[in-house]
Amino acid sequence: MPDPLAHEHDVEGDGAPSVPAREPIAAPPVPDVAGEVRAEGPAGAAVTAAPARTAPDDTGWRRVSPKYVVVEVVGSLIGTAVLVGGLLIVNALFDLTWAVWIAVAVGIAALIGIAFEPRRVRSIGYRLRADDLVFRRGIMFQRQVAVPYGRMQLVDITRGPVARALGLADLRFVTAAAATAVTLPGLPLEDAESLRDELVALAETRRAGL
Amino acid sequence: MSSPAVTDAGHGLADGEWHRLHPASPLLRGGLVLLGVLGFIIANLRERVIDVFLVLVAPGGDEGFPGSPDGDDWAGDPIDAIVANGLVGWALVAVAVVLVVLIVGFWLSWRMHTFRVTHEAVEVRSGILFRSHRSARLDRVQGINVSRPVFARLFGTAKLDISVAGQSGNVQLAYLGSAAADRLRGDVLRLASGIRSQRAAAPAAASVGDDHLALGGMPAGADAATGVPAAGGVPGGIPPGTRAGALVGRRMEEFLAPELDPGLAPPESVVHLPAGRVVASTLLGGATVWFAIIAVVIAVGLSTGAFWVLFTFVPAAIGLVSYVWSRITKSLRYSIAGTPDGVRIGHGLLSTANQTIPPGRVHAVEATQWLLWRAFGWWSVRINLAGQSLSGNNEQVQRTLVLPVGTIADVHRVLGLLLPDAAAAVDPLVDAGLTGGGGDAGFTQPPRRAAWLRPFSWRRTGWASAAGIVLVRRGVLLRRLVLVPLARMQSVAIEVGPVRRALGLAALRVHTVAGPVTAVVPVVARSEADAAFERLAHEAVVRAAGDHSERWGASAHAS
Fold first, then answer.
1. How many domains is chain B partitioned into structurally?
2. Which of A89, A110, B158, B206 could cross-link with B181 by S-S, CB 3.0 to 4.6 Å?
3. Hey, is B447 helix, strand or coil?
4. Shared-domain flag, residues A146 and A179
5. Is A174 on the interface with B (CB under 8 A)?
6. How far is B521 from chain A (nearest CA, A)?
7. A178 is a domain residue
8. What are the residues facing B160 on neighbouring strands?
9. Residues of chain B found within 8 Å of residue A56, distances taken between Cβ atoms
10. Are A133 and A199 a contacting pair, CB within 8 Å?
11. Where does the YdbS-like PH domain lie (chain A) (predicted)?
């Protein structure tokens, strides 16, 4: 049984305040070692059946670009503007005052959401281990997925207009299971491309049947 | 494709040459619908046809039917309009042209629809104007289904459905001669299993010799030469050839690979499904609950005078009855047996279907027991296969249901067939997984605080693993036991929402290909979830690397 995953590992060292903020994630029984570098225990590459393959070093947790906050903020601002604008038009046309109150509530909720956006983006992390890619995100609803390299059917780069202006790209992994649903957003384009090539090569060497 | 290279269906179909389907197949695929439409039209126009004859015998003036008393009612009727304008001849010509075009179209589509089975793939070419060329790689074959709808059975034909990984990526050969379909199934599975070195050497010569015998008086392109339309000329012509081919083919198979021939010693079904149990279990299923609800609604509607409920709910009830009826007829004559080429499942009373799942294609297995079945100890077993869409049609639902209803002993046997490698190690856990609760027999148990989220079933919620199989049990009203071979696992995830975080719990998901089965442990202690996450992620990689079941025959042959 390997050690529990280290929940905190700040590789890029950009956001020091992020570390204490995620304390409550770890459940009490987990011996949580904040900032532990290598939680790769006995389950590491040593036991793996195919030692001859090119095994990448465990990279530790990596973050997506902090600029991705802008993409998220712009997206939610546009959505909020459309909604609030629609409600105000309803108010102007039909003289329904409750529409104004809903618009105010939507605006406040959106502002709170935007305030948490940097935290949410910091919670997106990925880690290349010996045999699989681990992805995690979310502060309220946390999700952590491990995808073995051999299971990746497709690695896809997509870029929205705002992300393109910032030089960012999304990396999407597709396995035979639709539920896997792993998308790494907000990677700098050259990182995304090199990561894609690396992952495709890894997937090719570990290709197994379905 | 030049015509001499294309041979008609009926013998040695897996020889890498292009073959055609059974000549009756256009009729079976689309022609029956056409005949039905024609019959409907004629039945409805019987009186009109008589009228038309009267008009032809004694043509009236331009006014149409002078003697017709209710001419106004028929105004706007196309046939009246035609008759009134003296266009009968043109109309007949048009009908004849349509018929000729349809028949020629059917015949052409049969001519252009060819397939071949090579050592690498099954390829199908079809289409008249828009040609399509579909090829399915043999090492990705997920299962082969031979089904015989009622009409096809009358013609002695069968439909072969080769499902490959990928949504709607199936290759369908509809229709083939019944015996030819069975033989082709065996051949495709044999090729897919990777045994070809053994096959390639001596038997090739023998098969060529046999081909000539089997063909007899049916050289390729005979239909084209005589100009007889395919649909009319063939049903009388082909059976002798097919039968001879079947005979020769069987001989050939005995000679080639006696240990692999599933037809030589018909496999004994490991599960016996009495008809009474099928009927009773279906009546105790969810459809009955719906039926009761509809009955109550109708009764209430009638008693309160709201007669409109009749028009909405009576059709629903009729639909439900037909659903129950089809469930029962499809589950009758059920059999499941292990063959060297995979698990073979057959079922059906009028329309029969016969499915073969090669080894290592089962991505997840689930045994479920509904509340009303508990008193009888009945279970049903479903599986996930690659290439099945989630919102599958009726046929696909039927394909994922490998045991309609059975006892615990039946479940053990079916699991032994579906997961042959791990059966011995998993078997002791199955009983605890099906009916047990609490932390017994290696299953984990969530902490007591999980009762906040799963007040009834928290004791039963847990997972275990043995020999590369993860077992997940949960549910009380609907008891479930899910088994996922780690070699097939696609990814693993932990999900923690606000409530679960407050309780120190997590949900653990094992992702498999889409299907009726989802493997999720809804509540598990957070620390344990983390440990399980690591362990499953690691073991899945090891198991997948050591798994070579996609070429199951090659390894067996080599060892």
1. 3
2. B158
3. coil
4. yes
5. no
6. 14
7. yes
8. B146, B173
9. none
10. yes
11. 122-199
> Residues B455, B436: one domain?
yes
Q: Which residues in chain B are contacts of A48 at CB distance < 8 A?
A: 541-542, 545
Residue B344, domain member (yes or no): no
**Under an 8 A CB cutoff, do B533 and A179 touch?**
no
Q: Are residues B523 and B543 in the same domain?
A: yes
Residues A58 and A74 in one domain: no
Query: How far off is chain B from A165, nearest CA to CA, in Å?
Result: 33
What the block records as the tokens of B70 is 């209710």
Among A residues 67-106, those touching chain B with beta carbons less than 8 Å apart:
none
pLDDT, greater one: B64 or A62: A62
Mean pLDDT over each residue of chain B, to the nearest integer: 76
Helix H or strand E segment including B320: helix B308-331
Whether A210 is in a domain gets the answer no
Give the ipTM of the model, two decimals please: 0.71
What tokens appear for B26 in the block?
Answer: 């256009």
Give yes or no: residues A129 and A110 share one domain.
Answer: no
Based on the fold, state whether residues B112 and B240 are members of the same structural domain: yes
Torsion angle of alpha carbons B181, B187, B191, B197, nearest 10°?
-160
In the predicted model, what is the mean pLDDT of residues A183-189?
91
Task: Please give the span between the terminal C-alpha atoms of chain B, in angstroms, as a whole number.
Answer: 42
A142 close to B (CB below 8 A): yes
Shared domain for B40 and B131, answered yes or no, is: yes
Decide if A24 and B501 are in contact by the 8 Å CB cutoff: yes
Nearest in space to B541 (alpha carbons), one of A147, A32, A160: A147
Confidence class for position A45, pLDDT limits 50, 70, 90:
very low
Q: From start to end of B328-478, where are the E strands? A: 335-339, 342-347, 352-357, 362-369, 379-385, 401-406, 462-466, 469-474
CA atoms within 13 A on the CB side of A193: 5
Backbone angles phi, psi at A147, to 5 degrees: -120, 115
Residues 6 or more apart in contact with residue B383 via CB below 8 angstroms: B357, B362, B363, B364, B365, B366, B400, B402, B418, B515, B517
Side by side, the strands of the sheet bearing B352-357 are B171-177, B157-164, B141-148, B352-357, B342-347, B335-339
Would you call B476 helix, strand, or coil by DSSP?
Answer: coil
Q: Which residue has the tokens 């890619």?
A: A133
Give the domain extent around B324.
275-331
In this structure, what is the dihedral angle of CA atoms B387, A203, B555, A44, given to the nearest 10 degrees? -120
Give the structural domain span for A35. 18-64+124-205
Residues B33-37: what's their mean pLDDT? 75
Looking at the structure, tell me whether residues A87 and A140 fall in a common domain.
Answer: no
How far, in Å, CA of B16 to CA of B116, rounded?
6
Rg (CA), chain A: 21
CA distance B281 to B250: 39
Domain boundary among B242, B266, B290: B266
B507 contact A CB<8A: no
> Under 8 Å CB-to-CB from B536, ≥6 apart: which residues?
A146, B465, B470, B486, B489, B492, B510
Sequence-distant (6+) residues with CB within 8 A of B76 are none
Do A76 and A114 fall within a single domain?
A: yes
Q: Which two tokens stand for residue A22?
A: 């995620």
H or E element in which residue B189 lies: helix B178-192
Instruction: Return d(Cα A130, Cα A121) in angstroms, integer.
Output: 25
Considering the domain architecture, whether residues B248 and B384 belong to the same structural domain is answered as no
Q: Does B391 touch chain A (CB under 8 A)?
A: no
CA–CA distance, B546 with B542 (Å, rounded to integer): 6
For A209, the closest of B509, B518, B550 (CB atoms) is B550
Residue linked to tokens 């002798």 = B240
Tell me, yes or no, whether B188 and B304 share the same domain.
no
Q: How far apart are CA A56 and CA A130, in angstroms?
A: 6
Residues B413 and B532 in one domain: yes
Do B22 and B156 fall into the same domain? yes
